[in-house]
Amino acid sequence: MALFALLVAILVERLRLLPNSWQFDALLSKYNRSLISEQQPSFLIMTLAILLPAVLVYILSWLVSGVLWGAVSVALWVSIAVLCFSHNVQRTAFKRYIQAACRGDSQACFNYANELDSSLCLESVNEKELGEKVGQSVAWINYRYYGAIALYLIILGPVGTVLYCTVRFYSEQSRKHDSALPLVDNLLFVLDWIPSRVFSFGYVLSGHFRQAISAWLSHALNPQSSARDTITQVAVAAETLPESSSAPICLQSTIALLQLSKRNFILLITVLSLMTIFGVVS
Predict the structure, then answer these.
(1) How far, in Å, CA of 25 to CA of 22, rounded?
(2) Using CA atoms, how far apart are residues 270 and 43, in angstroms rounded to an integer?
(3) Taking the model in full, what pTM does it have?
(4) Which of 112, 206, 238, 265 could, after both became Cys, cross-link 212 (CB 3.0–4.6 A)?
(5) Structurally, how many domains does the chain consist of?
(6) Quick one: which of 13, 6, 276 has its CA closest to 151?
(7) d(CA 217, CA 117)
């Protein structure tokens, strides 16, 4: 069921069939406005806001279990996967970045790079370094918006997927509004700890093993290493980045890390397929 839901979600996301207003973050924005009115919610309110969507999905999963020979449960899995996997905003920002780089518009490239990854610090980055920085962002976004969701769907089903996406949403809201929300960052660090290490190991297998394994071990065995550092540093070690070209914004490093991310995700789907065949996951 996890494999089928994931494949349908990937197809819908690639074809951009789901409108922006129906994607998970858009729905959660409406939910957040209706539940939280104050700028700094209390710990109790924040806990309720984080847990309520996952609890509702758990109850719904229990209610529809076995209905129509499990067809309703399959529909629920697929629906949650599609909602959580569709990210038109990030895809559009990356497309615009590539277009701006191709026409040599450096200022637009910096703007779209910030739009693509608001956590990316570009203050001390020059034009020659921007391509690699955006490539690292691509590796990070591939994990944060796709890899982590796939892993939670495989291991914990729709409930775990919704919980992760909810915490991620509030973390982004906290950064966007420059306000520290209680519980959010610590909980996201915990939720990212194991998946980031599992997913980054895929970079070791998908890229240059010898260089990547040492980077992976140094981050994976460090309990304080953040998910972003683990993902980006292992990705950079796993891929040989080409020399910068004479173009104002070099796309070669970005494309190289994008291709690595694609290979890693294909590896994840392949492993899931084998696990499904041998009955390890349902």
Answers:
(1) 8
(2) 41
(3) 0.93
(4) 238
(5) 1
(6) 6
(7) 26
Inside any domain, residue 282: no
Query: For 17, which DSSP code?
Result: -
Within-domain flag for 257: yes
Place of tokens 């914004």: 249
Let me know if residue 65 belongs to a domain: yes
3-state DSSP: the chain helix, strand, coil percent, rounded to 5? Answer: 80, 0, 20
Helix (H) or strand (E) holding 153: helix 148-176
pLDDT tens, 45-74? Answer: 899 999 999 999 999 999 988 788 878 999
Contacts of 178 (CB under 8 A, 6+ apart): none
pLDDT digits (tens, 9 = 90+) for 174-201: 888 777 788 999 999 999 999 999 999 9
Residue 268 belongs to some domain of the structure: yes
> Would you say 207 and 257 are in contact if contact means Cβ atoms under 8 Å apart?
no
Contact 50, 184 (CB under 8 A): yes
Say whether 18 sits in a helix, a strand or coil: coil
* pLDDT 10s digits, 32-45: 888 876 667 888 98
For residue 162, what are the domain limits?
Answer: 2-277
